[in-house]
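Milestone M4 deliverable, item 7.
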Amino acid sequence: MENSDGSFLTTGDDYNPHDQYASDTHDGLEIWDELGKLYSNIIMCLSGHIYGAARHTATGDESNPVESMLSNWQGQGYDFAYLRILSFYGKNVFVRTFNAYSDAWVTDAANQFWVTLP
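Output delivered:
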């Protein structure tokens, strides 16, 4: 694999493996099986398309942790004008969500948390 010495963050539609929000199209599981779990330098996967917010730490084929996050609020009306913000501090990532409609931070466990990358 080219660039095999770097760490990678991937994005995809319907990707949040092993989570209660996974769709019945199997797109997310196919992406995980064919890409996400195979390479130890994939450290994070971001996804949307499935309504809600969730996170999960999966384990790759080489026992490597892969952080996956789902964030999607489409079709929920104007009061769901959410923005997901990831702030990177070395290997620590502060994830938070801002509701632009109400001018307020969303602070429940699915929308505000810290992640430590490998």
